[in-house]
Design a protein that fits this description.
The protein has a single domain, classed as Amidase signature (AS) enzymes. 37% of the residues lie in helices and 13% in strands. It has 15 helices and eleven strands. An eleven-stranded mixed beta sheet has the order 1-3-2-4-6-5-10-11-9-7-8, sandwiched between helices. It is globular, with a radius of gyration of 21 Å. The relative contact order is 0.15. The structure holds glutamine. The site of glutamine has 14 residues, from loops.
Length: 455
């Protein structure tokens, strides 16, 4: 908590620090230790953690960085929060994000800008810039994020931290505020691959309250990471995704990525180039499917059920419909409004087949690309993000330039496959570069081994 106090004036990673609750949780854990109640506790027991403000926490304000949720205090915990509490892990607070996790720089937060610890004039990436910066600035050893199109991995790359998107269905989404439900996944943010593995083991597993939760145990992730730390990758086949590189990728990013590939070879891995011909269409299809789901999910913020309510101005009939319109006009930011409008358009009669239907077909082709690739290799690799951290304001006036940050991360969300970003050294500009691994569905352990070997 002292480190948070010292770092926050320059970093601004937190929307809410729950210091009192964290100390109470730490005391409760100490009492369990003193009473010898340590049976079955995970290795991370007692280690504090920060949580992206997209995940609901009982009694602690949860805003999704939106004015429309300001003042809302959830009456329940997300499943992942229940699991952290059961593990005796104190929750330090809630971290900043782009409003409703929509963005790639955290600049779309309604409340504050979070700074990149490597250069405070630059963004930490997004949408989970708060969690990534909090870990990168040593304010917390661990954090949780949510990843719909890259919001754990891209901020990981830009802040030199580890970020994991588990297999879709591998970690319960119960209590994760819905952005695009078929793409959203909660995952770990950490400083080491082993820490991420241990955290995913704590939060993962079947949950009957999430209808897309997979009824299978969490794979042996920490064991895979420890195996990787021996730095022997003989027998591992690595596929370099041909379509994720080249044009649009900063030279320093490609250079560090190529260094990483050479290191994997030095440790005995066999590296081949693999083509995923439909990956170049992933971004376009994502920006149809994601807003469609956003437009549906965000319909619940109607001025009735949560947080903000704004009455229509005087002279306008005081009807429920006008109250909803006034609330949504005042409560949602520009980027969120843009996506709701895009989504409603893509789903509307007459356009549905041409837009949403086509995007779903592209999604199937991306899934097949992964299946084809994983019939030849064990893991796929690519740079996580085409560039290093950019300056505040650089991409705020150009939504398409902002969207391009996620070209390399989106394919995994479209297919539901696990993926992670680890730090791969510094680019020519002195800023961190991320190295991404993809593994087959429900085989998250397969990426943890080479990731731990490379870090
Ligand atoms: N940057 C992407 C977007 O704006 C990813 C968001 C996310 O993963 N939550 O949609």
């Amino acid at each position: 908590l002292d480190v948070i106090d010292a770092a926050e004036p320059s970093i601004d990673a937190f929307l809410h620090v729950s210091g009192k609750e964290a100390l109470e949780q730490a005391d409760a854990f100490d009492r369990r230790l003193a009473a010898g109640e340590t049976e079955g506790l995970p290795e991370l027991a007692g280690v504090p953690i920060a949580v992206k403000d997209m995940i609901v926490t009982k009694g602690i304000p949860t805003t999704a960085a939106s004015k429309i949720l300001e003042g809302w205090v959830p009456p329940y915990d997300a499943t992942v929060i229940e699991k952290l509490k059961a593990a005796g892990m104190p929750i330090l607070g809630k971290t900043n994000l782009d409003e409703f996790a929509q963005g790639s720089s955290t600049e779309h937060s309604a409340f504050k800008k979070t700074h990149n610890p490597w250069d405070t004039d630059r963004v930490p990436g997004g949408s989970g810039g708060g969690s990534a910066s909090a870990v990168g600035a040593f304010e917390t050893p661990l954090a949780l994020g949510t990843d719909t199109g890259g919001s754990i991995r891209q901020p990981g790359a830009l802040t030199g931290t580890v970020g994991v998107k588990p297999t879709y269905g591998g970690v319960s989404r119960y209590g994760a505020i819905a952005m695009a439900s078929s793409l959203d996944q909660i995952g770990p943010v950490s400083r080491t691959v082993l820490d991420a593995a241990l955290l995913q083991e704590v939060i993962g597993g079947y949950d009957r309250r999430d209808s897309t939760s997979i009824p299978r145990p969490v794979p042996p992730l920490a064991a895979a990471a420890r195996e990787g730390m021996k730095r022997d990758l003989k027998g591992l086949k690595v596929g370099l995704v041909k379509e994720l590189g080249g044009d649009g990728y900063q030279p320093g990013v490609e250079a560090r990525f190529n260094d990483g590939v050479r290191l994997l070879e030095d440790m005995g891995a066999e590296v081949v180039e693999v083509s995923c011909p439909h990956f170049p269409y992933a971004l376009a299809a994502y920006y149809i499917i994601m807003p469609s789901e956003v437009s549906s999910n965000l319909a619940r913020y109607d001025g009735m059920r949560y947080g903000l309510r704004v009455m229509p101005p005087e002279g306008v009939p005081q009807t429920a419909a006008n109250m909803m319109a006034a609330t949504r006009e005042a409560g949602f930011g520009d980027e969120v409004k843009r996506r709701i409008i895009l989504g409603i358009y893509a789903l509307s009669a007459g356009y549905y087949d041409a837009w949403y239907g086509s995007a779903q077909k592209v999604r199937t082709l991306i899934i097949r690309d992964f299946e084809q690739a994983f019939s030849k290799v064990d893991v796929l690799v690519s740079p996580t993000s085409p560039t290093t951290a950019f300056k505040f304001g650089d991409k705020m006036d150009d939504p398409l330039a902002m969207y391009l940050n996620d070209v390399a991360t989106i394919p995994a969300n479209m297919a539901g496959t696990p993926a992670m970003s680890i730090p791969a050294g510094l680019s020519e500009d002195g800023l961190p570069v991320g190295f991404q691994f993809f593994a087959p569905q429900m085989r998250d352990e397969v990426m943890y081994k080479p990731a731990a070997a490379l870090e």
